[in-house]
Design a protein that fits this description.
Helices cover 59% and strands 10% of the residues. It has twelve helices and four strands. Strand 2 and strand 3 form a beta hairpin. The chain is elongated and about 70 Å long. This is ImmA/IrrE family metallo-endopeptidase.
Amino acid sequence: MDFKKFRKIISNNKKNKDLVNRKLKEFYNEANMENEDDLLDIMQISRAVISKNGYLLAEIPFKDIEIGAICFSGDGSKYVLLNSSLPRVNVNFSLCHEIYHILYQYHSFKESAELYMNENYYDHEEEMIANHFASCLMMPESKFIKMFNKFEQESEESKSEIQTIVKLMNYFTAPYMAVLIRCYELELLKDGGSLKKLLNTTGEQISAEFDMLWLNTELLKGSKNDDFEKLLALVNKKGEYLVSRELMRKTELERIKNNMRKLYQEIRG
């Protein structure tokens, strides 16, 4: 990411801080949580919230690693499909990004399928707010500042910034760029010569730091989780119930399942 775009994101996040904080409070209420300290497993909590809003959540290993998530609607059902080919930190961020769109997007989805591109920081206002919401949901301000100070004190002086960032990645299971942006928007790191270096840190360098610090390197890998069969079984169970109540024809249920299989093949390849 270039410096100009980075500064624009920081400025935008500061401008929208109050709006995002209001949406976070709404999410905690939706999830029956008192505060951010209750959010220990984002996938588990989000599945229940998304389900209440009519969506089914599933992980599928996409063939295209440029795509982070797909929001899809069709045949009377709505799905959030996460790309498990991506590192776990990116999957978590994609999920939190989509939560904003599902719950709080001002304009409803215009297409039957909406894509969230992995590691893409758009210039579009609503996408930037969704990314900001995702970061704040994953990395609550007070806890983030506390852990930043702790990890900064523990890090080697010559590598304090990069080591602090990767430790925060590990602790909050969040992507590198999201952590870096959070550090600067909260003014925990100052603009200087090191920012350019941090903006150009490679995946190999991040992985090496994880390994050296004995952090969880599995967070940097794709889990390849495939929930399709469970998703298909759930749709079939609901469909069979509707068929038994004569609210759906058996042929319609089979058509829906065939469409799901076709979509799955297109996504997975």
